[in-house]
Design brief:
- By secondary structure, this protein is an alpha+beta fold.
- Helices cover 20% and strands 35% of the residues.
- β8 and β9 form a beta hairpin.
- The two termini are 23 Å apart.
- 29% of the residues are buried.
């Protein structure tokens, strides 16, 4: 089970604006802002912060992070809001049957090029 992830971003304020907007349809919000250390950090989550970005040491290499969505509609809105927030399309909403029959996902590259995915597992 994933407890939390933290990675550095190249433009902290731009990334905060992106994640604030792209995560809202998934029920993920900014829960914690930390300016007490040598660099700013922000934590996102639903009940507790588990997704963190930090102002320092931009992560080299591209990450792929998939976030579980509650519905296909939430995946669609994540993709839409991610693009409106400055993200780049990396695979529009749709079924990905090569993963499994009910795999419905969308991919957006964040401002640093990290591949952020929202996925709904429709296994009815």
């Amino acid at each position: 089970m994933l407890d939390h992830i933290t990675f550095g971003v190249s433009d902290f304020d731009r990334s905060v604006r992106f994640y604030d907007r792209a995560f809202a349809p998934l029920g993920i919000q900014r829960l914690f802002d930390d300016e007490s250390g040598p660099a700013k950090a922000t934590g996102y989550g639903d009940k507790r912060p588990w997704f963190w970005i930090a102002e320092h040491d931009p992560t080299s290499g591209k990450l792929h992070i998939a976030i579980r969505a509650a519905s296909r509609e939430a995946v669609d809105l994540f993709h839409q809001e991610g693009l409106l927030a400055g993200g780049v399309d990396n695979g529009g909403p749709g079924l990905r049957p090569h993963y499994h029959a009910g795999y419905y996902g969308a991919f957006v590259l964040d401002p640093d090029g990290h591949n952020i995915e929202a996925v709904f597992h429709d296994v009815a």
